[in-house]
Write a sequence for this structure.
């Protein structure tokens, strides 16, 4: 069964997290690309439909499918929820 996460980039509240930025710097990618890669790598039945009005962002978002997150980076990102809960 396919799962399409609603607002994969945060929709009206764009995703922001120091952990996303940290992993993005390590990979030479953007935080939004890391957010998409994190979802895609979570499970093969996750499909993302990121909305954009920008051709440059569209290219970035497609390229996110090629990013490979290490287990350590996934662990770092999995801590984002706890980080948000503290805000
Ligand atoms: N069924 C419903 O009623 C309903 C309602 C809302 C949404 N949805 C679904 O939710 C999904 C996404 O909705 P959404 O587009 O509102 O939210 P989203 O994909 O989470 O976020 C879109 C926002 O992210 C920005 N963005 C996209 N790529 C980016 C990048 N590479 N770097 C920086 N910013 C980037 C876009 O700005 P730019 O335009 O500047 O790139 C836009 O502001 C879609 O699958 C949509 O069909 C369904």
């Amino acid at each position: 069964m396919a799962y399409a996460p609603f607002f994969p980039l945060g929709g009206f509240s764009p995703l922001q997290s120091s952990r996303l930025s940290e992993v993005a710097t390590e990979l030479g990618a953007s935080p939004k690309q890391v957010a998409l890669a994190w979802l895609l790598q979570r499970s093969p039945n996750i499909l993302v439909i990121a909305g954009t009005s920008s051709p440059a962002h569209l290219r970035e978002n497609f390229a996110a499918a090629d990013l490979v997150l290490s287990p350590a980076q996934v662990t770092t990102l999995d801590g984002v929820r706890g980080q948000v809960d503290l805000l």
In short: The pocket of NAP is lined by residues 6-11, 14, 30, 32, 49-54, 57, 60-61 (CB under 6 Å). The helical segments are 18-27, 31-42, 55-63, 71-78, 80-85. Residues 18-85 form one domain.
